[in-house]
Amino acid sequence: MSRPLRETDGPCHVAIIMDGNGRWATQKGRPRLFGHHAGARRVREIVEACPDAGVKYLTIFAFSTENWKRTQVEVAGLMSLFRRYIMKEMQAFVKENVRVRFIGDRPRLDAKLRGLMDEAERMTGHCTGTNLTIALNYGGRDEVARATQRLAQDVADGKLHPDDVNEETLPRYLDTHVLPDPDLVIRTSGEARISNFLLWQSAYAEYEFVDTLWPDFSAEEFAALCGAYGKRDRRFGAVGR
Ligand code: FPP
């Protein structure tokens, strides 16, 4: 069973760019995929840390629309890791009351993986604890382009008037339409960029760039970042108190 969410000033929705698997493996003289496997094991620990940190939504960047440019060996290894991960972890997520969703462009993914993603969403559809969203073949610009295509179709079909296209209606077409915007975006491995992650949704997010490589990122560091978030003064463009 999932633990009740703690009442904190922490972020409700944390999004993470899990970076540094390759460097972590290289530092150990191992192939990059070794780092990705170690990175996958970290995910569970961070998901389990969410209730105590007051985090209700966790969104993780697992594979970007740009990651296809990596070697065929690395891409195939990652796809195989995602398939095995879903098969292995889903029962545990159901038990822990974690609701799993995927965002990103699915048609380019292989049929077996797509089937497992559908199955994971179906199996955890009733779960009411942490909401884990896995971004797989995801790119912020690609998401906005796909959303715009669907929106344009609705306008062409007379279901939406052009005057009604605004900041309220457009996000309904995004992959994230059922999620709140992220409050805090964390990127590991010392890189300070957002790499096409949740571009629309993160307009007012707070950012934390930490040096830790993703396979070394701990529940303690996650909790500390969520705690520090509670001390920030978010003004959303208004004047401070
Ligand atoms: C970035 O590190 C990481 C990725 C592109 C893959 C992320 C995947 C995982 C953390 C593991 C699997 C996740 C799930 C949900 C099963 P990098 O390879 O760019 O590292 P580098 O910058 O050091 O080369």
TrEMBL record:
The keyword ATP-binding does not apply. Binds 2 magnesium ions per subunit. GO terms for molecular function: ditrans,polycis-polyprenyl diphosphate synthase [(2E,6E)-farnesyl diphosphate specific] activity; magnesium ion binding. Gene3D superfamilies: Decaprenyl diphosphate synthase-like. Its EC number is 2.5.1.-. Substrate binds at residues 20-24, 32, 36, 64-66, 68, 70, 187, 193-195. Belongs to the UPP synthase family. HAMAP family: ISPT. This is Isoprenyl transferase.
